[in-house]
């Protein structure tokens, strides 16, 4: 897997940065000439993952959200979004559609379902009290 | 800023721009204050000017479905742009009969 480009982004877990984060990743993948649909899918998945860091990872504090994005030779986009927050006890349960621990804030519990539907793969690694990382990958199919 | 319109017992809210977690809280407060003061028979959320929406928008729809239901009204969502149709379908909100 030959990485041809990469970027790293750190920002405080303020919800105003959700828009910045998805726009930055979207600008980064532009070199692959994605379709509007592919770009919208990536923006939405990134928005979900970053919102999870802000709403859940750093529920009681402001911490740092880290994004590491790579583009490979075969046009694969790999985006790792992580926090050093509270972590998830049961990842399998958290990934169930409609599961949410923030009902009062009108969280629909669909974050992971959206990521899974809009990306080719979603990998979650979490350690309670240490943090969570979500790795999103999507292949950008060249236009013929 | 969002534009709203109230006519014949129908409250229409013209949503715009990007709807994410950051923006949803303000939208919720604005719409709910209109719902509670006007007690409309129907709330219509118009999505024609919405350029981006993540699952926070789904939370916003489900929450307004409940809020307008509490004052005896119904919710309709309309003018869903093509780029939002996937998330709307995935969410299952259509099963609430809001389309």
Spell out the key features of this protein.
heterodimer, A: 144 residues, alpha+beta, Heat Shock Protein 90, 5-stranded antiparallel beta sheet, 4 helices, 5 strands, globular, B: 99 residues, alpha/beta, Transcription Regulator spoIIAA, 4-stranded mixed beta sheet, 4 strands
List the helices and strands and how they pair.
The complex is a heterodimer of chains A (144) and B (99).
Chain A: E1 3-12, H1 17-29, H2 36-57, E2 64-72, E3 76-83, H3 91-94, H4 111-118, E4 121-127, E5 131-139
Antiparallel strand pairs in A: 1-2, 2-3, 3-5, 4-5
Helix pairs in contact in A: 1-2, 2-4
Chain B: E1 3-7, E2 10-19, H1 21-38, E3 42-53, H2 55-70, E4 74-78, H3 82-91
Helix pairs in contact in B: 1-2
Q: Nutshell version of this structure?
A:
Chain A has 144 residues and is an alpha+beta fold. Chain A has one domain: Histidine kinase-like ATPase, C-terminal domain (Heat Shock Protein 90).
Q: Can you tell me about this structure?
A:
The complex is a heterodimer of chains A (144) and B (99). Chain A is of the alpha+beta class and 144 residues long. Chain A has one domain: Histidine kinase-like ATPase, C-terminal domain (Heat Shock Protein 90, 2-Layer Sandwich). Chain A is 33% helix and 30% strand. Chain A is built from four helices and five strands; from the N terminus they run βααββααββ. Chain A has a five-stranded antiparallel beta sheet with strand order 1-2-3-5-4, covered by helices on one side. Chain A is globular. Chain A starts with a strand and ends in a 5-residue tail after the last strand. The model of chain A has no long low-confidence stretch (mean pLDDT 94). Chain B has 99 residues and is an alpha/beta fold. Chain B has a single domain, classed as Transcription Regulator spoIIAA (2-Layer Sandwich). Chain B contains three helices and four strands. In chain B, helix 1 runs parallel beside helix 2. The radius of gyration of chain B is 12 Å and the shape is globular. The two termini of chain B are 24 Å apart.
């Amino acid at each position: 897997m030959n990485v041809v480009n990469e970027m790293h982004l750190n920002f405080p877990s303020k919800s105003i940065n959700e828009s910045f984060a998805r726009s930055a990743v979207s600008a980064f993948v532009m070199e692959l000439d994605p379709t509007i649909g592919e770009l919208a899918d990536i923006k939405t998945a990134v928005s979900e993952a970053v919102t999870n860091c802000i709403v859940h990872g750093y529920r009681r504090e402001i911490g740092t959200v880290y994004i590491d994005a790579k583009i490979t030779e075969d046009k694969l986009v790999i985006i790792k979004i992580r926090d050093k927050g509270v972590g998830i006890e049961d990842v399998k349960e958290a990934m169930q559609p409609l599961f949410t621990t923030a009902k009062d804030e009108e969280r629909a519990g669909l974050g992971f379902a959206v990521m899974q539907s809009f990306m080719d793969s979603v990998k979650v690694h979490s350690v309670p009290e240490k943090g969570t990382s979500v790795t999103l990958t999507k292949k950008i199919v060249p236009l013929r | 800023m969002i534009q709203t319109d109230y006519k014949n017992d129908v409250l229409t809210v013209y949503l715009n721009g990007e709807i994410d977690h950051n923006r949803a809280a303000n939208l919720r407060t604005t719409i709910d204050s209109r719902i509670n003061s006007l007690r409309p028979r129907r709330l219509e959320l118009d999505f024609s000017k919405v350029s981006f929406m993540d699952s926070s928008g789904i939370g916003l729809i489900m929450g307004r479905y409940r809020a307008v239901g509490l004052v005896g009204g119904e919710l309709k969502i309309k003018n869903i742009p093509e780029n939002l149709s996937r998330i709307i379908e995935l969410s299952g909100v259509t099963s609430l009969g809001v389309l």
